[in-house]
C-alpha cells in the first residue's frame, strides 16, 4: 500500500495576507511608474533569455544585468535583480510548452523584497521603491492580517493595481504546529466527477453542509455546462463585442471552483480537528494518463480540480496540526470494507455498491471513502511504527540519512 505524508518545511508554513494601500495621487503615479518600469525590464530580460536560451538565474544575471540597467532608464539595482529572478521563475518547468518569449503585462503584479520595501508597523505605513525615490504609503487590512504583519516573519510581496485600488500581497511564515496523533482514526474523502467530495461520515460536498449559493454537485455541473456553451457560442461568433464579453467572463469558472475547493477542504479539516481524527485522500497524481475516457467525456475529465483540492486540504491540515496522508486509490470503490471482497461486480451501477460476498450495500462514493479512511489509518500506523531507538519510523529514516544525501530537509 503506497502511503504519502504531507510534505511541509520544518521551519514554518507559508501564507499570504492582502493589504490595501491608500497612496496620495502623486504617490500613486510613482507606484504606477514603478510597475511599468519593472514589467518593461522583465520583458527585456525575457527576450534576452529566450534569444540566448539562458534560463538559470545565475547565468541569466550575468547575461542581462548590465544590459537591462543600461536600456531601462531609472531602474534600480535591486529592481533589476528581482526582474531577472522573476524571468527565471517564469520559465521554470514551462520551457517545453513555450513557443516564444514570455511577455509581461505592463500593469502586471511586481514583486518587492526586503530591499525594496520596509514596514513601519507603529504608524501602519510601508515604504516602497519607485523610480523617483521612496514613497511612504499608509496601509489597512483585516484585523487578523494586520496582527500577522506585526508578529510574523515576512518574505516577498506583490504590488498590484486592481481597478484603481492598490494592493500589497505579503508572504508570511506561520509557525508550524506539531501534528496531533489521530486517536479517533481518519476521515476518508473520495473525490469524483459526479460528486466533488464524499466523506466517510456520509457527507456529500458541496451540499447543505456548506454555506453559499452552490447547493449541490448537480448545481455545479449545470453552471459549468452553461459556461461552456456560452464560451463556445461567443468564440464561434468572433466579433469584437463577443471578445469583450469573453474577457469579462474570463476566469469566472476557475474562481468558482477555487472557492468551492477552499470550502470543501476547510470543512473536512475542521471536522477532523473537532473529532480528533486525521484526513486521508487518494493519491490521484497521474490519473489523467491512467484513465481512458470517451471523447465526449474528455473535457470533463481534464477539467478536474482534484490536485487543487488536495493541495488546499494538505496546507490547511498542516496549519491545524491535523494528520494528513495520501493513500493508494486502487480498487477503493470495488472493495468491501467489511469482508474485503474486491471485484468489479461489486459496482452494479456507477453510484451503487453491492458486495457479492457479504451483501453490504450503499452509495459507491461513501464505500470508497470508508476504504480510504481505513487505508489512511493503516498507513499512518505503518509510517509511525515505534523502533528500538525510540523514534517513529518516518523520523528515524529521515535522521539516518547521511549529511550529503539529496533527500532534502
Automatic annotation (TrEMBL):
Residues 385-409 are annotated as: Disordered. One of its GO terms (molecular function) is endonuclease activity. This is RNA-guided endonuclease InsQ/TnpB family protein. Keywords: DNA-binding, Endonuclease, Hydrolase, Nuclease. Coiled coil: none annotated. It comes from Nonomuraea guangzhouensis. It comes from the Bacteria. InterPro entries: Cas12f1-like_TNB. Residues 306-372 form the Cas12f1-like TNB domain. NCBIfam families: guided_TnpB (NF040570), IS200/IS605 family accessory protein TnpB-like domain (TIGR01766).
